[in-house]
Amino acid sequence: MAERATEIENPPAIGSLRIGLFTDTYAPQVNGVSISLQLISEGLRAAGHQVTIFAPKFPGYRDDEPSGVYRIPSLKYMNKPPLYVAVLGTPRTTWSLTRKQFDVLHAHSPVSVGLLAYLTASTKNLPLIYTYHCSITDYTHYLKVIGGTSVIRRAARWFSTATTNLGDQVVVPSPKFRRLLLEQNVRKPIHTIPNGIDLSNFKKAKSPGRFRARLGLKSDAPILLSVGRVDPEKRLDFLIEAFARLADQFSEAHLVFAGDGSARKDLEETAASTKANQRIHFLGMVNRADLPDLMHDATLFLSASTTETQGIALLEAVAAGLPVVAVEDEAFEGMIVENENGHMTPLDIDAFNKQVGSMLMDPGKIERFGNRSTELSQRFSIEGQVQALEDLYIEAILQNWRGKAVSRIFSR
């Protein structure tokens, strides 16, 4: 009996891991979770691991690497942005998961596909990692009819705690969400692993001036840039109002939004009603390969969101050497260092514009802050994130093996 236990407690050296990533949001959707998963999966495969992504099926969309992505039958839940919810329990999905072999599962969402990860881990007795990508209570307005009620928000908080506790280990991208989960009585071990990006992609522009030419702007016209989903929680209306008040003082400046979402039509109408309407631009979706060009054409990066877990777009802007002015959000710890590469302000237009104006009036400050952004971005490489995840996967696998050994000892 002792020999059997020792055999399990001292497994062979771990080389290539078989990893299942489960998510309710993935390509062709463009958001922080989707982008992060693409980068993580590429990094893990480059490190020699076998990665399978489970995600809802999007009609008409074909994956670049279909062998590494398993699409689950889905139903359409929302038109703009298009949102599909996976249908669990279909014979094809059940059969596929029964046949596949994994060493560790990693859920990136708490709803249908995340639940599938938990059920699979329980059935196969596998370790389950769960990454908490967003505060569910900040997104209840997406629930039709009753999403904004206090009852739903309380239910969302309970659901957040319950689903997070299903994981054996929990990952958060920033200290902000570690504190949040502790307040919500999450009992499982919580690990802070910042999101990473391919820093080399943002070091320089491939086609400098490309977006300035597209918008018909002079080479020295200040561009205030926002990149990301155009949805209510991003508070882009705040940026429009702030720019409208600032526009007369800086008559050459332009505000540019890159991204799409459910709030775009309303925001375009709001922008059109301002005196600065000719200097507010909506680019729509920008191909990720073109983002370095856009960011290197910009002067400042702006953010008014307070619902970020970390903020991939802001991280990319910092990697591109952009100074930042943002509304205070703990998620930006480490990416924005006050008075070194940017400023964080209260959710107050006058305070926000004071910092934007201080930048625009001081080109030397923009250059210094931009250089510091590039330095700070080195902490957030995809290689560092992948290494941290590898270490966590191995730790979880070893704990799972030890648990099996103990179970076998006490079952005899």
Structural class: alpha/beta
| N-to-C span | 9 Å
Report the CATH superfamily of the largest domain. Glycogen Phosphorylase B
What is the fold named in CATH at topology level of the largest domain? Rossmann fold
Query: Helical proportion?
Result: 40-55%
- What CATH architecture of the largest domain would you give? 3-Layer(aba) Sandwich
Tell me the count of domains: 2
Shape: globular
What does the main sheet amount to?
7 strands, parallel
Labels describing this entry:
disordered N terminus, single chain, 7-stranded parallel beta sheet, Rossmann fold, alpha/beta, 2 domains, 412 residues, 41% helix
Describe this structure in words.
The protein contains 14 helices and 15 strands. It has 412 residues and is α/β, with parallel strands linked by helices. The chain has two domains: 2-196 and 381-411, Glycogen Phosphorylase B (Rossmann fold), CATH 3.40.50.2000; 199-380, Glycogen Phosphorylase B (Rossmann fold, 3-Layer(aba) Sandwich), CATH 3.40.50. The strands form three sheets. It has a seven-stranded parallel sheet, with helices on both faces. The protein has a six-stranded parallel sheet with strand order 12-11-10-13-14-15, sandwiched between helices. A two-stranded antiparallel ribbon has the order 4-5. The longest helix has 30 residues, at 382-411. The chain is globular, with a radius of gyration of 23 Å.
